[in-house]
Amino acid sequence: MTSVRAVLIDIDGVLTVSWEPLPGAVEALREIRAAGLGVALVTNTTSRTRASIAGALAGAGFPVDAEDILTAPAVTAAYLAEHFPGARCALLNSGEVREDLAGVSLVDDDDPDVVIVGGAGEEFGYAALNRAFGQLQRGARLVAMHRNLYWRTGDGLQLDAGAFLAGLERAAHTEAVVTGKPSRAFFAAALGRLGVGADDAVMVGDDVESDVLAAQAAGVTGVLVRTGKFQPETLRDASGVPDHVVDSFADLPALLRAWAARE
């Protein structure tokens, strides 16, 4: 890859951990902005709205606003509007993201048309999961914002919704439609916002499968960082090989400069 017009960036584990900036990340993003590159922060985070994420990042010094951020809930709302207009939806999620689910009719009963699974937390207890299982048995469709098995916090790796989603799918004999990463539609939405093609973009993430290899499958150059949820054994056992692996997001400007120098 010799030219880059835009950078897609995962947030959790790449720019921050538990919303604390990783070393050099603020400065690297400022350098990328100064170079005139398009930036989209693409995240499966389901605990905060776009506005809340932007506020947290800007408060930490990152040069971003809400328009730079594409979340799994926002993409989920667009998917439901297109494929299930007017559907009655039950939401199982940790965190308040209703603002990013604009237009989605959320209900609290046992007979919804769609069960939406977001990010995991204390809300994912037996009663809530069993209720969702019953809703699926009664014919509700299953839509998941992502399949992440875990993420890294300041307290270490924590289970995420993918671990519970697999059980719901198997028990209810159904398969979820996944709207966030690693779906191609998610990457297409980000590229569309920036007005660039896949050949002109690079994706930076800490999840080798959902961030990097999924982006590469969509034609975007993938860069894996050794921060966040990165584990050597996960890279070793991955279904493919990242285009590039760097120690952290702080190394990205140098990588981009090296590509530009080869033009």
Based on secondary structure, the structural category is alpha/beta
Major sheet attributes = 6 strands, parallel
What share of the residues does DSSP label as strand, in percent? Answer: 15-25%
Number of helices: 9
Commentary on this structure:
The protein has 263 residues and is an alpha/beta fold. It has helices spanning 25-34, 50-59, 72-83, 126-137, 161-172, 184-194, 208-217, 232-236, 252-261, and strands at residues 6-9, 16-17, 20-21, 38-43, 69-71, 88-92, 105-106, 114-117, 141-144, 150-153, 156-159, 177-178, 201-205, 221-225, 244-246. Strands 5-4-1-13-14-15 form a six-stranded parallel beta sheet, sandwiched between helices. A five-stranded parallel beta sheet has the order 7-6-8-9-12. The chain has a two-stranded antiparallel ribbon with strand order 2-3. Strand 4, helix 2 and strand 5 form a beta-alpha-beta unit. Helix 4 (126-137) runs parallel beside helix 5. The radius of gyration is 18 Å and the shape is globular. The chain starts with 5 loop residues before the first strand and ends with a helix. The model has no long low-confidence stretch (mean pLDDT 94).
Structural topology:
Layout: E1 6-9, E2 16-17, E3 20-21, H1 25-34, E4 38-43, H2 50-59, E5 69-71, H3 72-83, E6 88-92, E7 105-106, E8 114-117, H4 126-137, E9 141-144, E10 150-153, E11 156-159, H5 161-172, E12 177-178, H6 184-194, E13 201-205, H7 208-217, E14 221-225, H8 232-236, E15 244-246, H9 252-261
Parallel strand pairs: 1-4, 1-13, 4-5, 6-7, 6-8, 8-9, 9-12, 13-14, 14-15
Antiparallel strand pairs: 2-3, 10-11
